[in-house]
Amino acid sequence: MSGDYRVTGSLHFSNAGGVYTANRISDDLPVVLKEARPLAGLDANGIDAVTRLHHEWKTLRALSGVTGVPQAYELFTAWEHHFLAMQRMPGIPLGRWLAKHHPLTRRAYTAADLARYTRRVLQIIDQVSTLLSTVHDRGWVFGDLHPRNLLVNEQDRISLVDFEQASPIGDNARSALGAPGFAAPRERTGRASDEYALAALRLWLFFPLNVVLTLDPSKLSHYVEIIAQRFPLPTSYAEQILRELGPPHPPPAALMALERPEPDWPAVRHSIAQAIQLAATPQRTDRLFPGDIETFRSGGPASVAVPPESCTHCTSPVSVGSRSWRTGW
Q1: Tell me: the pLDDT tens digits for 173-186?
Q2: How high does pLDDT run on average in the chain?
């Protein structure tokens, strides 16, 4: 560390680097320090964490003065690691806010509770929409809108954080990183990708199952119908979600088979078996399927598949390629 900051806590860790709370020693100013490690955190475009951090510094400088966007204070290097010091924005991540306030997380709720929550969400959505429009007017696309990049304070005021995926609006770029359920389809680039993510946020704040839509997009209309029936929403709210997120893409063949009145079970079984085979890595001797680090500590995630010589409770043999494995629970 440069010595100009005193770290007080950690917010997030990844292979790209950490995010820390700190105070600037010269004046005790609260800041957030974002770390980038060289040649780490490569994205789909082969860009590493350091390049993204320098890009975020440039973006925040261009957006300086926008309410709800953190001010960038300093970009510096300590040892081999790069750090961006920025304004510490007030509030908690939007996901924690939802868990705390969503009325359906409680066993007992009233129509008044639903109406109160709806009013608060509509105010939050209006703020996010206005903030995105301001960013667009400054010539930038945010590119990575999802609940973890939105903070809400005690007055329900919104801040937008993590600008490393932002891009000039004229580039019509597509983010190399994205959150499932919020990342736009490939054909939606530039400003359209932010509009897609905003519509996903409209749905998520009432019915936070967006990730399921990545597996079965046809559920979109059902989800929208549920929130329209349960919450006192204006008709235009549901229409905006359907317009931006639909029409749904054709679901996978196995899901189509399952949704028929008489499911095509042979097709479903074939699809499941094919997926299992494609996920297997029989060329490895330490585990058959990709999984958590616990694979190498306790015999596999829930002992789904481990080499027979290391398994004392396995039952059914499985053959993939030229190797034979045993599975058990």
Answers
A1: 878 788 999 999 98
A2: 87
Boundary residue ending a domain (245, 274, 294): 245
Q: Do strands 158-160 and 150-152 pair parallel, antiparallel, or not at all (unpaired)? A: antiparallel
How many domains is the chain partitioned into structurally?
Answer: 3
Of 89, 98, 158, whose CA–CA distance to 123 is shortest? 158
Count CB atoms within 10 A of the CB of residue 313.
Answer: 10
Residue 243 belongs to what H/E stretch? helix 235-245
Tokens 């997380």 belong to residue: 105
Query: Domain with 194 in it: what CATH number?
Result: 1.10.510.10
Q: Which own/partner pairs from 95-103 qualify as long-range (CB within 8 Å, at least 24 positions apart)?
A: 95/147, 95/148, 97/152, 98/147, 98/205, 98/208
Taking the model in full, what pTM does it have?
0.77
In a domain, 164, yes or no: yes
Distances in Å between the Cα of 248 and the Cα atoms of 37, 130, 131, 174 are 39, 27, 28, 20
21-53, pLDDT tens digit by residue?
A: 999 999 999 999 999 999 998 888 889 999 999
In a domain, residue 49? The reply is yes
Whether 144 is catalytic: yes
The tens digit of pLDDT for each residue in 298-310 reads 655 444 544 444 4
Residues 166 and 299 in one domain: no
Q: Identify the band that residue 164 occupies on the pLDDT scale cut at 50, 70 and 90.
A: very high
Q: What percent of the chain has pLDDT over 90?
A: 65
Query: Are 157 and 191 contained in the same domain?
Result: yes
Q: Are residues 144 and 204 in the same domain?
A: yes
| Helices first, then strands: H and E counts in the chain | 10, 12
User: To which residue do tokens 């996903």 refer?
Assistant: 200
DSSP track, 160-225: E---TT-EEGGG----SS--TTTSPPTT--THHHHHHHHHHHHHHTTS--HHHHHH-GGGHHHHHH
The DSSP element (H or E) to which 322 belongs, if any, is none
What is the DSSP-derived secondary structure letter of residue 89? Answer: -
Q: What domain range is 47 assigned to?
A: 5-87
User: What is the DSSP code string of 151-165?
Assistant: EE-TT--EEE---TT
Among residues 28, 126, 144, 194, the one annotated as catalytic is 144
